[in-house]
Recover the amino acids of this structure.
């Protein structure tokens, strides 16, 4: 039997070995990140890197599937068969994005059920933009143009994220997002060019309501975003919130001109010195309220999600029963 003293000594020695080993692993990890290497699921990674990624990937996955709700709401009311088919395909794509991302999240050691549970119990967040209502058909086009447009701007740099399973998922997702943005813009263009005055007014009203929340999608200003620096250090984040927001504004000004809509910001002005568009002050109080659960649709979205999950229980049970029957047959 070991004595107490020997126990302590052995434990101390083991600890020293682990610490030394960990320091070496950490050093190797840092060097790989600095060299621009990709980290795979089975590679050693620091706990905080794993936690940060899991939080980001699962929030991203939740945003994809919660984002299906405000648009799914309009599938039955699409104005033409063509628009209905396009919207159906788009909403289905978003479900697919959720699946790729939950799968990427699972490679970090947390199950999809655990992630979904965190969403449904209100512990996990999703993008604040999906807590705004879709009031008219023009909102659907505007979501494609601005919300998917902002998503692309945010997501293209993630294709080079240091965590390979996330980067790979993002490559596929970005290709589809580009279709989402175009279909939205196209639908607005038809309303603006060939539509009635009432339809044009509807588009302007939708743009007025979505513009500012879309600028908030890039997250708080760089100087108020404490986790950004670490994300950059780890190669999870490649471009800062403010830089992405500026790129988005610069791209949208021209697109708005072609469309014939006015972006609802009297301070929008070309700055020849910076060679960028200056824009007005964002209402960050509104952003934090929506993030904190007080947005116009937070409660409704979560209730719908939980109901969809409960209503689908029989499908999951049937699929599992089928899979186990197949496995039994194969074993026999
Ligand atoms: Fe998506
Ligand atoms: Fe999308």
């Amino acid at each position: 039997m070991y004595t107490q003293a020997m126990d302590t000594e052995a434990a101390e020695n083991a600890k020293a070995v682990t610490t030394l080993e960990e320091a070496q692993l950490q050093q190797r990890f840092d060097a790989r990140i600095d060299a621009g290497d990709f980290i795979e699921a089975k590679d050693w990674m620091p706990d905080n890197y794993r936690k940060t990624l899991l939080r980001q990937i699962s929030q991203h996955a939740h945003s994809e599937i919660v984002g299906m709700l405000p648009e799914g709401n309009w599938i039955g009311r699409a104005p033409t068969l063509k628009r209905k088919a396009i919207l159906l395909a788009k909403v289905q794509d978003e479900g697919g994005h959720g699946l790729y991302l939950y799968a990427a999240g699972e490679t970090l050691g947390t199950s999809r059920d655990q992630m979904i549970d965190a969403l449904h119990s209100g512990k996990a967040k999703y993008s604040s933009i999906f807590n705004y209502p879709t009031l008219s058909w023009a909102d659907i086009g505007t979501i494609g143009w601005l919300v998917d447009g902002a998503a692309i701007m945010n997501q293209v740099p993630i294709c080079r994220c240091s965590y390979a399973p996330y980067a790979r998922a993002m490559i596929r997702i970005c290709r589809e997002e580009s279709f989402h943005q175009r279909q939205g813009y196209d639908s607005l263009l038809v309303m603006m060019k060939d539509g009635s005055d009432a339809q044009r007014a509807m588009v302007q009203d939708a743009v007025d309501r979505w513009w500012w929340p879309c600028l908030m999608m890039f997250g708080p200003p760089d100087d108020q975003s404490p986790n950004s620096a670490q994300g950059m250090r780890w190669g999870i984040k490649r471009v800062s919130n403010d830089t992405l927001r500026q790129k988005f504004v610069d791209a949208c000004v021209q697109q708005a001109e072609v469309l014939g809509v006015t972006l609802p910001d009297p301070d929008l002005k070309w700055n020849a010195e910076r060679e960028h568009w200056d824009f007005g002050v964002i209402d960050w109080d509104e952003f934090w309220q929506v993030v904190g659960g007080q947005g116009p649709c937070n409660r409704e979205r979560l209730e719908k999600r939980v109901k969809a999950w409960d209503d689908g229980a029989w499908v999951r049970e049937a699929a599992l029963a089928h899979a186990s029957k197949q496995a039994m047959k194969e074993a026999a």
